[in-house]
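Ticket reopened. Same input as before:
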Amino acid sequence: MRSSAGVSMDYDPPGNRSLIIDIKGNSLDDGPGIRTVIFLKGCPLDCLWCHNPESKSLKAELSWEKEKCIACGTCANNCSEKAISAENRYFIDRERCNLCFDCARSCPSQALTVLGQEMSTDEILAKLLRYKPFYSTSGGGVTLSGGEPTLHMEFTSKLLQHLRSERVHTLLETCGWFDYTRFKALVLPHVNLVYFDIKLLDAAMHQRYCGVDNDRILNNFMRLHEVSSSGAFRVLARVPLIPGITDTDLNIRGIASFLHERGAREVALLENNAIWFDKCKALGFENRFTTDDPITGLYDPERKRAIESVFMDMGIKVL
Amino acid sequence: MGSTNVVVKTMKSMIPANSVLRLFLSYVARKVNSSRELRGQLHGTQGWLNCSIQFLTDDGGVSQTIHFRDGVVSVEAGDTAKADLKVIFATREDLIEYLTASPDESYKMILRGRIRTEGKLTYLGNFDYMTSLFMARVFQKAVDDQIKDHQKESFKLAQGADTTGRQEKHRRAAGRIGCRAVDPGVKYLNDPYLPEYSLDDFPRLRQFRQDYFDTMPEISAEYGKLMTDFFLEHGYEHKISGDAWDPNERLASSFYHVMEKRKPCIRENDLIAGSYTEHPISGAVSHPYSVGPYIEGELKTISLRESNPFGISEDAIETFRKHVMPFWKDRNLLELWRKEYDYPLGIRIHDRFFAIFFWKTVSNMELSPGYDKLLNKGLAGIRQDIETELLKGGNDLEKVNTLEAMKTAIDAVNVYGGHLREEAERLADREYDLARRQELEGIEEILRKVPVNPPETLHEALQSLFLVHLALGLETMDDGPSLGRLDQLLQPYFEADISSLGSDVEKQEYIKKAIELIGCFFLRICSHQIVTPEIGNYQNSGSPPNTTIVVGGTDQEGKDAVNDMSYLILKVVELLGTNDPNMHVRYKLNCNSRDFLKRAADVNYLTGSTPAIHCDDAMFQALSSHKGWAFADIRGWTPTGCVEPSIPGKHAASTSSLEVNLVAPLEMAMNNGRHPLMRWDVGPRTGSVENGEFETFEDFWEALRTQTEFLFEQSVIGNNQLGEIYQRYYPGPLLSTLLEGCIESGRGHTRGGAKYNSTGVSLIGMADVVDSLMAIKKLVFDEKKLTFQHLKKAIDANYEGYEDVRAMVRSRVPKFGSGDEEVLAIAKRYTSMANDYYRSQKNYRGGQYATGWWTMANHAAYGRVTGASPSGRLDGEPFTPGLTPHPEASKNLLDNLLDVAQLDPKTLDNNIAFNVRITPSSQDSHEETVDRMTDYIQTFFEQGGMQIQFNVVSSDTLKDAMAHPEYYPDLMVRISGYCGYFTQLQRDLQLEILRRCEYGL
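Engineering reply: fixed in the latest deploy. New output:
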């Protein structure tokens, strides 16, 4: 089985190393307390509005940030494929580039960087545990995000296991498109909290905007939610509010009823924000929206309040 | 002399510099000689005001001397032996540039070493004053132009900036949170956060606070005049009879004269009597032997300047100019030092602003007097102790003289107290408002009792404290003395008052009354400012005299010392939000409650920048490294001045004696002993980068260590010389009565009489040096990406044409505060090196030196006099404040916190200033924000951190405030160890604060 994003369901690399996009310390918005968020690379979905476009591919990528570039020409001199040119709007000819990353290694200002560093669990743990005192004081911990951490089930499992043995609170952010059996065996025993994204309730819409159908996602949510009644972990549904796509009355009411029927009492709403446009450019493509599209602006607070009341009317608390 | 422009503007370009200078000086001479009025300004109460000032250039070809002699001004070409002062320009172009410079530009030229002086610096005031008399309009225009330019830049900077900062203070205040009392020492407050009270509940305080922000401080000539009167009558170098003065006797006698003759003032509607000057809302004493003389040249223009202007009356100008300044020109601390030590190297370094500033030329008062003794015994009780000591007899002449002088000094305070009581009586008699009349009668009653006798009520205690604190500020200097642990001092009186009240309603009323009393006390404290010359704004712009107060921590047995008063004082800080008293909180891990720490964070959030928060555990460790200091005493420590530790009532601390630029010796090591901007081969020869004389990083480390220790050595020599000046001229007998050991030994605090003795040093630019060392080590020696020569060339070129080198340094070399182990190791090695040196040195009182890593505003001033650094810092850019990591060190605040916490407290025994700028998310509630701040502080402390505080202000708000200061009169920010009002700060400093890393919350 393959997702339309081209990721094989069977994909599950060995668990000692993985490609990491970023480890972000002192995060206050990705779960309770002071947290460190680790972003893994690769995602089975292909959402039109993806806020972390650099996390989609399973491979390392080259990024060029224009503001950091001092136009010294060192990279072009070091490029064996002659793929770099200041005349190029995206700086790098992605067709020619063979991803040797010599340019990034030679760049004095680090305008050119490699997105996706292979790291071992030990290396990552050393970084994560450095901030452990702050987790303890604040009731925080570590959040696994991506990309999609469950794409690296073995790796995720190992990392979570280590963290829990260090008594660090663990949170997993997932798109929900995973093999439940393996998830249950490998991940669930080691996680305190799961943030589970529910984007579109209509299967066709989901296929259209996210590249896969939502059957397995909704099924996974139902099962997880049921098991969570044991109290061993918590699961929280999160809905991204994308203007005109996920925030339609129909979709919101649909999700609210879905949650209500499963007995979920809480939901989190994620406002769309447009900071990801710059990221696209650094990776060598344009985003698919024009500037007059509401998706490019700040989210309308009134609309948000209206959506909140839909959930609250069904007895679902909006966090 | 910055005022001397335009006259020559039109003709400057074509004429050689020497002729321009001659023309200008001749113009001054003609102007003065032809005006009876101007010539009258050259005659003072003690005769003609004479001076000779030579102007010359290093590149030769220019030399003119202007003589002011017996009322006649003349100009002489060529060399002269008679000049009191030489003003030396680097080049002829600098001379021309200076003559047409705006005030800011001219100060920058001085700071950049384009102009230096040799000789008696205070003599320049005479010349500047005379020229300012007929150039006031020119000066005014230059200032106006400068303000307009700055305004234009600020408007540009603020384009698009969010303006919600204008309502931010009210928004935060509206969200006040409460808390249930948990601290064992809190006995009467149900909710110690006291959220029910706002400033509107205290009309008196609201009015006083408004007055404080609306009133320009007025310079008073009273103190200078009385001091001068006294010495003219009785003699200064020796008694008029020809007999020698004992230093203590001289000081006590003049102090008595001042206290007896000064005007007793009770501010309208105030509850605490007394004032620093005859301007009770806001005044400046201007001690004539300290910074006073430096303002002579600015007397006419000081009210016009862009930042921190002062008001001054024509009468006061006349008194200063004709009576006070002439007397103290050669008798101020700086000139006494120059004269009595034959112009030593230390003073030459000091005069050029680039490497060491000897703060003792301003004050030695950074310590904490034993106010507990005052409250317990009253001045009468202390006087009795002195009598008893005298009765023991013996033939120790110094002891007898010192003790006699102490008695005189105590009598001086009591005389003033008596006059104040009479004033209260007089005011009460003519008061028609019955309520106010009762208040005045109450004050009169209180003054009958204190400070002579021990107080019994809170009101009496505050009155006694204020009177004696004020007197200490007049005895020598009003810069720095700390009030110490005010919550511990006042709690017994609070308890005595409240426990006698029956009903809850009465108790509630009393708590409100207590807040009002403490508020009045605070506003008394902040009713005085130190007058500084305008160039001083670069160094400590917007700094108040910094009367530090601390609450919390442990008692002498190590038990939780938090009490009702701790919270009441914090409430007053919240309500007033003033930068003086400089407010501090001590927090002992596993002892003080988290709720107490949270309240400190809460007040920090509400005020935006205060209190500073200290960890007892780290400080105990630091102070325990001082041999012979009893642990019980260490537990009583208090911050002083900015943040520096001292032991109240036992410790001659002088915690702010030296301000040393650490990047200067780095530059000297890179240039074989030469300081590039000063063009001065001041240091030892330690090897040349150009000639490849450093083969390893260790070689270079040795060079840096040698240059650094050379400067440190000069700082110690100079400080000890200045210490001896204080022993001979400013011994401080009153202060000595409040320091344990002084009465018993018969030695004042400058003579080592106190139980503990140390000298505090402020080391400036630590992060910049450490980051530079890391760049050199990694790029030149470890990875060999660059040769040292190439890096040096890039630095000498201010990285122009070497952008790749700078980019490499910035992106590939980890900085202190990034979490990198190697750079942290360099930081530890470096702080140990500095501390080892100072710790090994003895001061003139037999104590040791202690190293502090806080910077006042010197990180900006010294940055100005420092060329580009290996860390990627550009020429003239500020250093980082205190030992705060560079803004680019890490995007993750936790890395900063962890690295700073790793430094060994023993190497930080004069404390640190760690400033973090945060902007809370608008999504978070007040409680969430404060909880998060508390988490940061608590964890930082648990990891070994010593000191921290937050500036809770966004970049947008700072930009909006620069463009629209009218909306932000009370926007307070922490500079390093002190707080200032942002819109009044010197512009360099505003930009430095804006550049600081802004961490979201």
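The radius of gyration of chain B is 28 Å. DSSP finds 36 helices and 25 strands in chain B. Please confirm and we'll close it.
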